[in-house]
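Table S2 (text version). Query chain:
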Amino acid sequence: MALTDRPILDAAGRGRAARAARRRPPSHLQPPLTPMIDVTFQLLLFFLLTMRFALPEGQLPADLPRLEAPAAAVAPLEPVRVRVDRTEAGLRIDISRYHLAPGSFGELHAALADLRERFGSGEPPVVIEPGPGATWADALNAYNEARRAMFVTIAFGRQAETP
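Corresponding structure-token output:
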């Protein structure tokens, strides 16, 4: 055995490896828990003291309306049915329920504006029913005249077949 192969011992008989292990800090360090617990309790106390308690939803104060007799139910207005068709004789426009038969779209506007004034605050819906001979332009012109007469609720329907 050579001189360099022998372990070097200190006075207590321990080698360099033992001294180096003693100088190194242990690898399983734990953080100090006392300050962390103190901060946790301080935060808990802060949130408890600053929290505002609200009433549950079941106990909210509410002002309810007084009980009165129910208002009379308003019957829905019967729609104004505008029938538009093209025959061999030409354009045929009919507002059947009101027995009006305007000859042109300008007259249709006048008739619908007159009906609108008759109804006052209540506004019936307008249903445009193009006939089998009517073109798309005829249905669209009838729609435009109803809009010009200030009707808001306008729909397209299908004409009932006449026997």
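Notes on Table S2: The longest strand covers residues 80-87. The chain has a mean pLDDT of 78.
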